[in-house]
Amino acid sequence: MIYLDYQATTALAPEVAAAMVAAMDHYGNPNSAHRLGRIAAADVELARERIMAALGKSGGRLIFTSGATEALNIAITGAAHISSPQRRRVITLASEHHAVLDTVVALRHDGFEPVILPVDRDGLVDLDIAAAAIDERAALLAVMQVNNEIGVVQPIDALIDIARASGVTVVCDAVQGFGKLPTPNGDLVAITAHKMHGPKGVGALWLRDGIDLPQLMHGGGQEQGIRPGTLSPMLCAGFGVAAQLAGDRREMDLAHVEALWARALHLFADWEINGSMQARYHGNLNIRQPGIDAARLISDVRGVAVSLGSACASGSGKPSHVLKAIGLSDSEARSSIQHGVLGVGVQMDERIIAGTHPDSLPSGSDRTRTAGRVNDYASPLASKSRAYCRSAGYSLVTSTHSPVRGWLNPS
Questions:
Q1: In the annotation, is 172 catalytic?
Q2: Are 308 and 283 in contact (CB under 8 A)?
Q3: b/e map of 297-320 (b: 16 or more CB within 10 Å)?
Q4: Which of 243, 247, 240 is nearest to 45 (CA)?
Q5: Does residue 309 lie within any of the structural domains?
Q6: Which of 172, 236, 312, 389 does the annotation list as catalytic?
Q7: Shortest CA distance to 11 belongs to which of 22, 19, 20, 3?
Q8: Which region among 109-123, 212-226, 237-251, 259-273 has the lowest average model confidence (pLDDT)?
Q9: What pLDDT score was predicted for residue 350?
Q10: What is the pLDDT of residues 173-207, one digit of tens each?
Q11: 211, 245, 279 — which closes off a domain?
């Protein structure tokens, strides 16, 4: 299986798995005062320090959560409710993750005015439009650093400057940028572990000094009362090591991404790229080809893991709201495929860029390591599937167990 869905999730790094296994032996409750509890608490605090270091933050507070969705809900709802009564606007972009969009819209029930700013064909917000909306009537701005579907990097520094000029709190969704790009200078920053080779089920919210959120959940008062509930030292430890690895490997990983990006542009030269080519994280490639049914293509191409967009909304059956926000038609959105191409220490990615273009492959049976015969079925979808996969150097093979076994890349 060739895994190219790194915006959805990542495999555990071996170092992360080792840290989590070690922490499993520290079974005490981190809130307990006895020795076992203090050992578990030490695991949590070491992880907190490592994540803060990876964020580049020496001040403020880091609160552990179950993931970025919870962190964003706490940040957006909490920041809105501590704003002055004169500030009723909550502002975000049309291309945001649903964890942001839905939370902003839900604040309508609490008397706030959701304002959803449009993005252009490149997926970028117009700063003049943003400046007109982000004024003394606004309670907060919630904005994503790197879009999870099209990889576009918003002009976040300029947006933060606009917000600061009007005293507006900024909530940053840094999930896709954490460990790859500099941390935005927002007031609250949401991150998660499983997008950077850490475990699922743990995220964090960083708050600058002076931000005191109201208590939205009730319980034992853990995490300074902001997020009560017993933490998992194992998950926290894994997150901490993943963050440390990301910081240590950042330059190497970015060089890896640039090599993949350059190769992908060559392999998919006849495909349209969704989103800005300039303001973009190159670990994301969202492309489209007229006439392709991307959902059917993904189903047929079983040896390659790519996606239609956000995994969180993949079961809705609707075209991606991000692709619709940048002006694509339903047909264009449904013919789009998302590749996430960064994996720390995962060599499967590298086989995409090194010697896998059809022109560089040996001929005949040496092109694959399977005894199956090449399938030559001739439906229009099959033709599109073959064109897509062969452009990336895969060979379609079959077996007696399935009409289409999958696309395999040579190694």
A1: no
A2: no
A3: bbebbebbbbbbbbeebeeeeebb
A4: 240
A5: no
A6: 312
A7: 3
A8: 212-226
A9: 41
A10: 999 999 999 999 999 999 999 999 999 999 999 99
A11: 245
